[in-house]
Structures are given as C-alpha cells and as structure tokens.
Amino acid sequence: MFDKSEMDQVLLATGGYDHTIKLWHTHSGICYRTMQHAESQVNALEITPDKQLIAAASYQHIYMYDLNSNNPNAIVNYDGTTKNVTDVGFQVDGKWMYSGGEDCRVRLWDLRSKGTQCPKIFEVLAPVTCVCLHPNQVELFVGDQSGIIHRWDLKTDHNEQLIPESDAMILDIAIDPLGTHMAAVNNKGRCYIWSLKSGKIDEPTKMNPKHKFEAHKRHALKCEFSPDSRYLVTTSADQTAKIWNTGDFSLRQELKVENQRWVWDAAFSSDSQYVFTASSDGCAKIWNIETGSMEKEYAGHQKAITALAFRDCAV
Amino acid sequence: MALYDNKYWLLSHIRNSFISTDDTGMCELIMAGEEGVRKHLKQSLDLYPDDEDSEDEDDLSHESYDLQLDTDFPIRYRSNTAARLEKLEQVRKKTSRMKHVKWETNNSELSQEQVDDLFVRKEPVVSEVKQSLFSKTFKQYRMMPSNPFIEFAKFDGSGQVNLQTKKYRIFLTMLPEHQRNYPMNICCIGSAKVSELIGLILLKCSTMYEDYHWKPVTTYGLYITEEDGEVDRDLPCLDARENISKFGFHCLGLVEHTDPTKYVSFDTSESVIIMRSPFNTSDKKSKDISKSDQEKQITTDLHLMDVHKRAMEAPLYKSYKVYMITKMRAKTEIHLGISGEKIEIDPVQKNSKFVLVKQKPINHDMDMIAWCETVDVKSNRTIFRIIYSQNFGSSSAPESVSTFSPTLQTSASFKSYDFEAEHETAEEIVYKISLILELRSSDTRKEYLAAQERRYYKKKALI
C-alpha cells in the first residue's frame, strides 16, 4: 500500500459543470486523468482517507471512482437520495461515509459491511447544504437552507439547534483540526465563529458564540480551517477568496484575479502554506498564503469548477 | 431543363462535383469568389436561362440545393431514436460494471455494540507539519517554466461526455524514426480550430517527448495522412484558422515547417547549396560605394536566380553532343541525354566505315549513377567522368553494359565512362548530373561516397 510513487500521494481533483472530474499533477499543472461524470454536475468531492477512492456528490447519487486505475467510469454508485447530494465526507478511518442532500436528510453509509444496510439517517426540515464532522468523529454539524445549524450526536442520536441569523441560508460549516473553533458562512456573506468546548466522554460539545464578521459582500460559499488552525479561508460569489487570521479574525490575504468569477471551493496544503481554490472561470488556482499571489493555474475544464478535493502528506 | 449539350449545365455540374468531393475545402474557397465570371458564363452559355432571376438570387452562393457553403458538418446525424437507444445501451453497459449500493431504511435500531464499534470518540490530534510533500515538490518545480501550450488544455476532449468531440490519429513526422511508428491518439472538442488542435497535440507531445524542442504552434501544419503514416505532401496543410469539424479526416500528420511564413514548406534533407557572395556582408561598411554595391547586389541576385533556375531545371531532359573516350583512347561522337530518371548514351550515326570501335547505345538508370566529376581541363576541351555501378538498380540494357565496357578504371563495383566536351558544356553536364544525384540521394551514390572515404582513410593510414 505504501509502495506508490511519491506523486501519487499528492492528489488534486476538480469537478464541476462540465460533467468531468480531473486529476492534476500539482507541480506542472498538467491534467493526467479525466473521469466521466455523465449524469450530473459535481456538487462536492472527497478523497477517502486511504487515497484509494474519490467520492463525487451529484444529483440523486454519490459516485465513487478508483484513483489507482485508468477506469474513466465510476465503480460504486450510492443510490437512493431523491434530490441533489450536496456534501460528502468520510470518517477518519474510512469506516463510514456521511452525506447530506436537498431531500432534507443526512445519511451515514457503512463502507465496511458487505451488506448495503445504512446505519443511520437524520432528518431536518429544510434542504441540507453542508455537513461537517467534528474531529472527535462522533458529532456531525449540519447546515440547512432555513439557516439552522444542527449538532447531531452519532452515539446518542441527540441533537440541538443553533440559529445564528434568520432569513439566511447556512452554506458551509467548518471546524478546525483541534476542535476548538467552528465557523459557518451564509448567503449574506457573513461569517460566524463559535468556540467549542469538548465535553468529557459522551458529553456533548458546548458551543459559545465568539465572533461575527462581514466576510464578503455576496454569498459566502465555503469556509475551511487550515491544518495548523492559524487561518480560515472563505470563498464567495464576490469573485474572491479571503484568508483570515484565526487569532483575531483579521483579514490576512484577499485572493483575487480578474474575471475568476465565483470561487466555490478551497483546500489548504497540509503545511498551511498554500491554498487551492476552484472557480467558475474553469480554472483551479494555487495561492501562496504568505504573499497572497497566485502561483499556478490548473486549466482544462470546459465549464465552472464547483468542487475540489486535495490530499497531501507530510515529509 | 438540362441537357448534356448544355455547356452551362455541364460547367455547373463539374463545379459542384469539385466542391462536393474536395474535403479540404480548397475548391470551395477558390470557386466561391467567381460569381462574376459565372454570371457572365450563364448569360453567354445557358441556352435555357431561368426566367425568374429573383429565385436565382439566393442560389448564387451555392449552385446546388444540397450544397450548403460552409455551414454544416459533412456528417449526417443519426435519428434521435437510434442515438437514444445507443445511449441507453451505453448506460446499461456502464452500470453493469458498477457496484450499486441502494439506500435501505434501517428499521431495527443499531445495537450498542454496533454503535460502539462504528462511532469511536477520538481526541483531536494535530500533527505539526513543517513542510508538506506538495509544498516541497511545488517549490522545486516553481522555477521551471510552465508549459507554453498549457492554454490549449481546455480543448482536450477526452473524458468529455455531453460535448461533441473528434478523435484523431496524429503522426509526428519530426520525431526520430523509432518513436514515430505509432500515431498519437488525440481527442479534441469539436468546436476547436485547427491551430488549437495543433496546440493540444503539442501540449501532449511536450509532456510525452520532453527532450524534443517543441516550437510555437505557428511552426507546425497538419497534413492529410495515410493510415500507414505517409503524409500526403501534394495537398496543402489544413487551414489553421478553420474549425476542425470542417475536415473529415481522422489520420493527420504533424509537420514542422522549415519556413513558417510559407504555407507549404517541407524540410527536405536534400537542399541546394547556394554560394553566398561576400558582398552581402561587406555592404554595410561603406556607404560611398553603395552604387557599385547595388550593382554587385543585382549581379549576385541574378547569379542566385540563375543557380536556382538551373537547380530547378536539373531533372528536365536535355541532350548534349559530346565525345566519348573509349579504352583505345579513340573518340566517338555521341549524344548524351540526361534527365532526372536516366542517362542515355546514343552514338551519332556516321556513314564512315572507318570507325574503330563501334559504340552501342547504352541506357543507365539514374539510381545506378554514383558520381560525376571533371577530370582534366585542356586548352579547348574538358574531360569529365561519370561513375556508375552495375550492382544497384536495374538497367534497361544490362547485357549491353556488361559485354561492352569502355571503362578505363574498374573497381569491384564501380565503373566509369569518360567524355570530352567543350568547357561550358562539360561544366553544365557535371553540374546537372551532380544536382540530380544530390536530389535523388540514391544508395549507389552513398555507397560510392563511403568507398571514397574509406580509400582516403586507408591512404592516410599508409602515409
């Protein structure tokens, strides 16, 4: 399993409206593989922790593609959602996968069992826009279009609700790797920060509102903490992505080029020095956080890129 | 009404045939601009002109109703049903290879064991990463210039689904022989232009053959090519500004132009060497003698023209009256006919009975000729020699050659004829034959040159 070449361990995948998923050589900007995602656009992408498969959330399905073959078609199809699947992610050991959809449901899919039984489902009242797994691996934070954040405890099935702002859709939720902060962005461009206090065994995480700021002028689409928890990146329909210092939530960098249009997704390198963005101009971009300059473009998609997945490793 | 004696109709028919059978679109381009001529012809030739001229108006640009100038693809689309059936079949095939996981609502509650097994609380651990593998390699390669053809990546059609794409087999003529035996498969989106397809090919090439120096897109042309990779050099390359869907070919050859300004220019290994006069370099220095320089320039140009003309005319047949020197040092008057294909030696018929050696007519294929050179310059005559080989090629009269050989000097495989002619004639003949040989670059010539070289080194070694 570890005899793969070094480059295989740095994986960048992008997908969007042109019904393809592309894999890139990150250092040269060359696309080395294109996978077909014929039936729908790509809503979200995530690579499994063992870097063997990539999951694409799409309309009514989640498709899994093999990263280690040249098969352009999906090898697994998770079926049964009635509307768009909006988010997808994995438990850290790859035991199960979670997904959220516009059918107002959050589902857990057992990846280990040979049977197809799905262990859990969680229903809310509005279409689910985002799902975020707490680093403790037992709590899911679910955002929906009515502006509610649900904390769902997987062990006890208890849940609790937060409403940071009425009349605003929660578009993304992020929790930093230490589990001390949670960020949520909404369609008004605002960003809310909570400090999290982990409970003892089986006690729920406590959330205390900490900060609120105007991150963008228009829809904020994605937020993500850096692996070292020092930065938060937010992306937006105002054609920018912004890097914020998590110490005082001051603006660190504005990542902007002419005509990049909506910035949909972002991912940090594991040493928190670079950040990838995916935007509607059909290009993924890599930015240096120190200087705020764009260092490379990954061009090749015919239409907007709406999702991006990146896996890095330490040296 | 159309009859075969209707000149206008016939003309129109021929034009249509040209346009409809020419996939390159050249005929169409040329003929589209001839409306005036056509109208005139119509008036003078058409015996039965249509009365309704107005109806003819929109017909002007394309004479036949089934010919639409430049608007449609030459492919006829399949019916919707057939396309849909095929799509369904493809989906069925694809899904049969896929594992399907259907969501099933779980009625029974998970047991505590299962819950404990699946949901294990973990303490968030943060491993301090000083440098990631990505950052390391990215920084390493940051100084490397980015691929100049990267902008063409978006024309890649591979993996595209709901988009018209075209697949091509591209032969790369500039690569070394062992690498170019197999064509490169390229899938390009249908809306790309020819220049963009070239860019995409170069992008692929630059990643596959990194050691070859790839030049800008404008340096290359795409030519219609046979399945076996033989480039059709009689036709011009596909117009770089045109949309690729206009051309129906799937096998194309990428050719590097030696002169990018020229539309068709192949790199031929046999090039005519033109001696540049030294005037070109010196005329920058002095302005006061510019007039004489100009004159010199003109003479140089004229000289160059002449050289060029002679090079062009070299393969054309020409006959010379020369004397052949036989073994016995006797001279026989002959006609020496030289063309790009062969050399003919024809004795001039004489009634004299006192001919010492009767020369028979000889034919030599040009592939058998190895060399031609001036041997001796006398006061009024020049002696030149044609060296040939019997081992190579096929002679039209091999017996006559073998039975009668007026050679003075024979080697294992090369024999020669000596001729005598006036200075100018001899010079012209030597030049003509040398040019032809250089152009043909036959095996005989190579062999001869190699033998000469060997002999030279042998001599050198002996000294």
Instruction: Point out poorly predicted stretches of chain B.
Output: 52-63, 267-289, 393-411
Q: Superfamily at the CATH H level of the largest domain in chain B?
A: Pleckstrin-homology domain (PH domain)/Phosphotyrosine-binding domain (PTB)
Count of individual beta strands of chain A: 27
What is the H-and-E element order of chain B?
A: HHHHHEHHEEHEEHHEEEEEEHEHH
CATH second-level architecture of the largest domain in chain B: Roll
Overall outline of chain B: elongated
**SSE arrangement of chain A, N to C:** EEEEEEEEEEEEEEEEEEEEEEEEEEE
The radius of gyration over CA of chain A amounts to: 18 Å
**In terms of quaternary structure, what is this?**
heterodimer
Could you describe the largest sheet of chain B, including whether it forms a barrel?
Answer: 7 strands, antiparallel
Mean pLDDT score of chain B, rounded?
A: 74
Tell me what portion of residues of chain B adopts beta-strand conformation.
15-25%
CATH class annotation of the largest domain in chain B: Mainly Beta
Strands in their spatial order, largest beta sheet of chain A: 4-5-6-7-8-9-10
State the CATH topology of the largest domain in chain B.
PH-domain like
Structural class of chain B: alpha+beta
The Rg value of chain B, from CA coordinates, equals 36 Å
Tally the beta strands of chain B.
12
Unreliable spans of chain A: none
Helices of chain B, by number, come to 13
Pair of chains with the largest interface and how many residues each contributes: A-B, 76 and 55 residues
WD repeats (chain A): 11-34, 78-113, 213-245, 263-297
Keywords (chain A): Cytoplasm, Repeat, WD repeat
Main location (chain A): cytoplasm
InterPro entries (chain A): MLST8, WD40/YVTN_repeat-like_dom_sf, WD40_PAC1, WD40_repeat_CS, WD40_repeat_dom_sf, WD40_rpt
